[in-house]
Design a protein that fits this description.
With about 575 residues, the chain is an alpha/beta fold. About 25% of the residues lie in helices and about 20% in strands. α5 crosses α6 and α10 packs parallel to α12.
């Protein structure tokens, strides 16, 4: 979101935050109405209130077997699309469709919302080819971008970006029906979009229907014709003008970002899905098109949908390489926080490094990003091995993600440690299913996630507040999240312990006097001037102490003034 858009949102967000307060100010404020000053916040982005649950739709729940298309591809085993096990894989990996659909997602909306999520990110919904791909390289458990025999179950091989893939809707339940149903459960819909590529487009022994083709609501506008990129004739053949004549990812078409027709096509296509209820976009392979293209795209979308939230996937652990997409001129979108993900994995996975490993990747002041508080924080997804951690490691990771800066994203099944450590073709994308979802309550990872996610859901300071670190070393992290905007004011003091034994924590730095309450245990502590807040945090535990009051302590205000002045990054600062 641009800085101008954030400014316009300020008044609206102030009203929303005021409605979220859970307790009256314990002491009368000496500051005059209508507002408190100064303002302290990490972001005013409304979407920051919504933790995100990521669903690979085909691998979530088969709610309607009638749309499985089990006969698709005909009688040729090389072309069929349903149920294609990866040869020799012991974890049951599959590269065919397995039946997950909109009905299965909507049937489990209560399950997702009950955990404390406010949004669902689902994989692309657009039409994909109707056969398995016969070109490319043979797939294997360790294969990456080796697509022979694979199908479009994941949704990223778009053919007609204006039409739904037939595996997803049911009678009476199209995309608009899905988004409306999710909204009834308090869930926004984040739609995964692709601009860089369509389907696999060359190396097929015989040209296959839809592969390498792009349609505009049923009208053919581009066709690779099973030709290698170097053999395309964009100047002479109208069907080649959509594509670059250089390869990019595997055998996928490489859309020409310099062609205004490409921008127009995707702007119109994705505007259609906003009209049917998409509330935000996740942009696939954002770094495979230049930042200038994404600036034109985001401007196009926001011309008719001001402030529309988007975040991109730039798969790189170097913050300087992914941050440009957050700047003016680069798209002004958020990104998935891959640099932090690398450190989260090291701290909560089998390495069990200390919290200091994370601290330097938070970039709370003068960092490379336009605003670090709007980054999407995560530890794994469908494109990489799932995090390899113990139950306690997952619990610790969730305790951190749902209290620290950023917007947390959790991949389906992680709430039960599903297929932990498994790579893409070795179980990462395995079918989750209704039975596992029904059995999730009572799982220690699920139950601990639900507790801390619901605390974040109820605590605006954890969603948008500035972060001030008190200690982040070894097995312990202690930090404040402070939100004071308009007439709303809240301080949250977070205590994290990822060790195997309880730890005593004492905090006096920046500690403001008042009646603090523990969000998880419900206990209270009255802290006087110059006092100390003491607590014992259990092994692999968390507590969030909350004070609903304006900022009054001078040294706290000074620290917040500094954090506020330097929270934004990027070349413009």
């Amino acid at each position: 979101m641009s800085r101008a858009s954030r400014a316009m949102l300020g008044a609206t967000v102030a009203a929303v935050l005021a409605a979220c307060a859970h307790a009256p100010d314990p002491a009368p404020s000496p500051l005059p109405v209508p507002s408190l000053r100064p303002d302290y916040y990490g972001t005013l982005e409304p979407f920051a209130s919504d933790a995100v649950y990521f669903v690979m739709t085909d691998r979530f729940v088969n709610g309607d077997p009638a749309n499985d298309q089990r006969g698709q591809g005909g009688g040729d085993p090389a072309l069929r699309t349903f149920d294609r096990p990866v040869p020799g894989d012991a974890n049951g990996a599959n590269i065919g469709y397995l039946g997950g659909d909109f009905r299965g997602l909507l049937d489990n909306a209560d399950y997702i919302a009950d955990m404390g999520f406010g949004a669902v990110w689902l994989t692309p919904i657009v039409d994909n080819p109707d056969e398995a791909f016969t070109g490319g390289d043979p797939i294997g458990s360790e294969a990456f971008f080796k697509d022979r025999g694979k199908t479009g179950y994941h949704g990223y091989w778009g053919v007609d970006f204006f039409r739904l893939d037939e595996h997803l809707p049911s009678a009476g339940l199209d995309f608009a029906g899905l988004t409306a149903g999710l909204r009834q459960h308090g869930l926004k819909t984040v739609l995964d979009i692709v601009g860089n590529h369509g389907s696999p487009s060359f190396t097929m022994p015989v040209d296959q229907p839809k592969f390498g083709e792009i349609y505009d609501d049923g009208r053919l506008v581009a066709d690779h014709q099973n030709l290698a990129p170097a053999d395309l004739d964009p100047a002479g053949n109208p069907l080649h003008r959509f594509f670059h004549s250089e390869p990019d990812l595997a055998q996928l078409s490489n859309n020409d970002d310099s062609n205004p027709d490409v921008l127009d096509y995707y702007c119109r296509a994705y505007s259609k899905w906003i009209g049917e209820g998409a509330a935000a976009f996740r942009i696939d392979t954002i770094r495979h098109m230049p930042p200038a293209f994404w600036q034109r795209f985001s401007d196009c979308i926001r011309d008719t949908h001001p402030g529309f939230f988007m975040f991109g996937e730039a798969f790189d652990h170097d913050a300087d390489k992914i941050a440009p997409f957050t700047w003016p001129g680069g798209g002004e979108v958020s990104v998935l926080d891959f640099p932090l993900k690398e450190r989260i994995d090291a701290v909560f996975g089998r390495q069990r490094q200390g919290y200091e490993t994370i601290a330097e990747r938070l970039y709370l002041t003068d960092g490379p990003y336009a605003n670090p508080y709007e980054l999407m924080t995560f530890y794994d997804n469908h494109d990489m091995p799932r995090m390899d951690a113990s139950d306690e490691g997952f619990i610790d990771a969730h305790n951190f993600l749902f209290t620290a800066r950023g917007i947390p994203v959790i991949y389906q099944g992680s709430e039960i440690g599903f297929m932990r450590g498994a790579a893409e073709h070795a179980g990462n994308r395995n079918y989750l299913g209704q039975a596992r979802i029904d059995a999730a309550p009572g799982n220690p990872i699920h139950d601990a996630l639900r507790r801390i996610a619901r605390v974040r859901e109820a605590t605006p300071a954890l969603q948008r507040g500035l972060q001030l670190d008190v200690a982040m070393q070894g097995e312990r992290a202690v930090f404040y999240r402070v939100l004071q905007e308009g007439r709303f004011a809240q301080l949250a003091l977070v205590m994290l312990n990822k060790g195997d034994a309880p730890v005593d924590v004492e905090v006096s730095r920046w500690l403001q006097p008042g009646a603090w309450r523990a969000a998880l245990s419900g206990r209270t502590q009255d802290v006087g001037a110059g006092g100390v807040l003491r607590d014992t945090v259990p092994a692999h535990g968390v507590e969030v102490w909350v004070l609903d009051a304006p900022v009054r302590r001078d040294d706290l205000r000074e620290a917040l003034d500094q954090a506020m002045a330097h929270r934004l990054g990027g070349p413009a600062n």
